[in-house]
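Reproducibility note. Readers wishing to regenerate the assembly model reported in the main text can use the exact inputs given here. Chain order matters: entities are listed in the order in which they were concatenated for prediction.
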Amino acid sequence: MDDRLPRYLKLRDEIAARIAALEWLPDQPLPTELDLSQAYGVAIGTVRKAIDVLEQEGHVERFQGRGTFIRRASFDQSLFRFFRFQRADGQRRPPQSRILARDVLPPPTAIAMSLKMSIEQIAAGAPTIRLSRLRIVGEQPLVREQIWLPHAPFSALADLPLPEFADLLYPMYEARCGQVVARASERLTIGEADEDDVEKLQLAPGAPVVVIERTAFAHDNRVLEWRVSRGAAAHFSYEIEIR
Amino acid sequence: MDDRLPRYLKLRDEIAARIAALEWLPDQPLPTELDLSQAYGVAIGTVRKAIDVLEQEGHVERFQGRGTFIRRASFDQSLFRFFRFQRADGQRRPPQSRILARDVLPPPTAIAMSLKMSIEQIAAGAPTIRLSRLRIVGEQPLVREQIWLPHAPFSALADLPLPEFADLLYPMYEARCGQVVARASERLTIGEADEDDVEKLQLAPGAPVVVIERTAFAHDNRVLEWRVSRGAAAHFSYEIEIR
DNA sequence: AAGTGGTCTAGACCACGGT
DNA sequence: CCGTGGTCTAGACCACTTT
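Running the prediction on these inputs yields the following structure tokens for the assembly.
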């Protein structure tokens, strides 16, 4: 704790720590701004500025009249950020998901590193859960994914019958494992269709493929998930605003 | 002007209009917050909130002790956002630019639309300036670009001898034409190497190519430039934070 | 030393959501 | 109706830049 920091930033850190400690879940409001100002002995304007920062960082969301709430990432439309793909009727619905396989196994070193597993865990052969998944819009397989989860917080998913997996995983992480995804970081590259791409996505061998590697984080910066998604480059389109 | 809008947003709009009217250039400070609060008859906190918004939108930049200034876009590193490419010594320097050609001509309709030219202008065959450019890091040609500019504001560049073009265009737009780029929007897709790519970027025919279309805007939302950049997909890598 | 934006306070009133 | 966050005020003091 740096005494040179302004009060509102110190307060931000204190509240961020309580968020990281899971003191509130996305459906429970934080204390009101007045309560916080009294509890920490600062003016309400200072509390507001601290929460401004947390809001900009994506940790909380404010609703006038209701309160301030922990924010959950909502990437329902995330595939559509990268792939233009519409159903015949022009609608955008979350793609269907088909789990092809689930394995419980110690991860390759590179993936253990991406999951920020400790040296001890890696040496001890700590297991992970690997999901292989196909995402389908209409009848067309669009993207195939491999998803790696640390076993401990997600053990409930190691035994769940495959048919009970929903189309969207993040709500399941929250409902079944109490894990809230707060943010993610992604890396895009271009590769070539491998044998599985040819078979599962019906691509020509060697066709260009967009590869998206995503690391998803909790509010306390624990890595919750590492996934790699592959889809035909022909469908790829991505738009950015630069300021 | 909507009377239901809070005061700080109305004030934001007033200042934004003055920015759009080029009342200040990036090196001249805006009036101080105290001056603005007196000029508009609001409290200084309200002025600060209005400027907060303008700062978030990327219109202005604040410097404690110096003042508040119009922001210029600085995409010096913009190619490196998309292409991993290092010099032998690991440094990242802005790529060199070689202008291959400059033409003054009426644009194809699609590009006239992208430049937001009016129907009348298009019908009258209003000219544009087209630059063909190669961007080179070390000895390696990395990206080739076609850049289209509306003729009127950029006429100074229609006559400038090609050797006087600098590696970075946006500072030239400002210095020679008084045009400040405030923001841009980009669209990424994947294509195949065409004949020019094969020749100028030394790619195999049909090799995957990343295509970046950029529209650059002034503070008043005039389109200043439309450009398309093409580079080998093999060098492509892009990272995003999602919140 | 003078002038700028940054922090902090204390309090009033407004707009919205749920009871 | 009450409680929430949102707006607005007036003023004090701090940190930094320039003269």
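We highlight two features of this model. The longest helix of chain B spans residues 7-20. The beta strands of chain B are 60-63, 67-70, 96-105, 128-137, 140-150, 183-192, 208-217, 223-232, 237-242.
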